[in-house]
Design a protein that fits this description.
Layout (H helix, E strand, L loop, with lengths): L6 H26 L4 H12 L8 H4 L5 H26 L3 H21 L9 H8 L13 E6 L3 E6 L5 H5 L5 H19 L3 E7 L2 E6 L3
Antiparallel strand pairs: 1-2, 2-4, 3-4
Helix pairs in contact: 1-2, 1-4, 1-5, 2-4, 5-8
Amino acid sequence: MSLFVGPIHHWLFNKIKTFEEVEKEAIRWAEANGFEGEALAEKIFEKYGAPVGDHALEDIIDTGNIHGWLQEQISRAEIRQSALISEILRKDPKAVTALEKVFREEGQRIGKKFAQKEDKNTNTAAALFEGLHDYLLEGMPCDRVTEVINQDGKEVLWKTNQCLHEKYWEAVQSDVETFYRLRDSWIQGFIESANAEFAFYREAPLLQKIKRVEV
C-alpha cells in the first residue's frame, strides 16, 4: 500500500466503520433487552480495543504504518463483534433471531443510503454486487477474498476463496456459522433496500448470488 493516505484507504476505513455501526446497533439492542449491552461493550472494548467511532481517518491513522494500522482495526472490529454476539447468545441462544432482525435493518439502512447516491446504478445485479462490496468487510484488498464466477444483468454468482472470519469466532469459542447467518441477514437487507427487484441467496457455504426476482 501507499505511504500516503489515499482513496483506497478511505474506502477500507469506511468499510470498517460500517462494520462497527452494526456492532453499535447490537449493543443498543442488548442494552434494551436485558443483556447489559453497555457494560458488556465496555468490557470488550477494554480487552480488544475501542471502535474508531466518528474520528476522521487522517486524525487517527499511523501514517508510518498505514497497512498495518488498517489491518489492526479490521482485527479489532472482527474480534469485538464475535465476542459481543457470543456473549449474548451464551446467555440466550434464542436471541439470534432478534439479532438477525437487527442486522437486516442495519443492512436496509445502508442499502437505502447506497441507492440514494446520485452516481450509483442499482438496476443490475453487477451494480448491486459492486455497491455491496463498497460496504462489506472482507479483509484487506490484497487478500483477494472474492471471486466472481458468473455475471450478467440479472445475476452475479461469486465465491469466497477463504474465510477470514473463522479465527475470530474460534478465539471466543464460538461457531463462525453464526457470523454468516447474521451477515446474510445484513446483505439481504442491503439488497432489498437498494433494489427490491433483486434478492440475495447463499448457494453453498462459500458461494453466494444476487439475482433478479422472478415475478
